[in-house]
Amino acid sequence: MKYYLILLLLANLALLSYAETKACYNCKLVIHNLWRFMRAEQFSSIGITIGIFFCKIGGGSEGLCQYFVHDVFGDMYGAVMDKLLNATYDCTSIGLCNEYKIIKKSVNTFQKQVLHSKPPIVNHMRKQNRRTIRIAQIGDIHMDPYYMENKSVECRHMSCCRIDSGPPKNEQDKSGYWGTVGNCDIPSRTVQSAIDYMANVVKPDLILWLGDTVYGDSENITREKTVDVLKEVTSIFKETFKKSGNPSIPIYPILGNHEAYPADFFDFMYIQNESWILKPTAEIWKEWIGEKGLQDYMKGGYYTTLVPNAPKLRIIGLNSLLYEINNFFTTPNASDPAQQIEWLEKTLAKAEKDHESVLMLAHVPTCCDRAARGSSLRLQALIERYSNIIKGVFGGHYHRDFVRVLKNFEDDTPFELEFVTPSLSTREIVNPAFTVINYDRDNYEIIEVEKHMICLLYTSPSPRDLSTSRMPSSA
Question: Which pTM does this prediction carry?
Fold first, then answer.
């Protein structure tokens, strides 16, 4: 009798397991077939054709309509279908499959877990005759290889000051030799001049290159052109500092939202789809990022490495595309796309254990309106927890320089500064500029912040005479 009951129990378990397996299989089959139907080329091409037709009726150019309707909408549509109709995820979510665990941790729970071990803040006494390390920040270069002098600044395209912008309507509408404060990016000669000045006058000890190097004209950009601009600017950095006698200066680049194609979109779920940008940039930046950093970089566009000429100083370069609010691919996993935040927490914990200081880079600032709320709050919690070792958070994207004071979640006590660097591009009606921060080399506390700016408004009469200004402020 006892053995009979055991056999009956085992038989029931086998039937139950079979039923669960069958239900899981049927569920996945239905969703997969639905996905195949919705992703069929004929189905999506109808919507794209209609969209391009109405875009042109509305006055859009051929290039503009192709970009926004075919490329942007096409990627958005594909992202929605791939994420909403993910058979394994959907069938596990409704309890018909049990192939992996879906862990959902609220922001409040994450904050409490991270901050419970936060150490007290230690204020260092200021010393006289401090040894300094000069760190330059440059970002939003937006180099335009198609920029032309004496063209219209105002045009119907996304970027002006080009051959198709037409002749200027008056003197105020005329593009200048070095660039134009208006709806234009800058020519390669201005990038070369700025980096010449940086190498021979500013003479930094290391450089933080904060993304958005590619021109902002989504209408005429391609993946190939994106890579070409990045290669050219990388070459300018290397050759210029080599000629200045400092060929081994550490430079730490990160991706901006315009390094994605279409702009803002980065498919972290299928990272192989982003190999077009990750592989070539890994190749041209490997001497700065290092072999270990490259392994992480190829997983999601983020990395960490130690600065060779600064003891115990660690760089953490984040991929802000993974939390940028306009990246449609982040929608189904907004809390931690590509496991960047999990990686960041482990990296900071190890840096603290090894008594290192950290500089954190992210093109889109972690604090502001372009960061998805879930990821932003998690990043803020980690920055607060490790504010004892984080000596600065650096970003760009806004084309204007400002400093954001980060405050803790409980009583708004300041705990960190987030520096947003100005743009080298003139788009957004600004003069080209970059910043330099002088740190104490012994404890990496900030001594002084400088802003170096090309004053284009004063160079128009003499286009070859490029003037610059330096505006220091004590920190």
Answer: 0.81
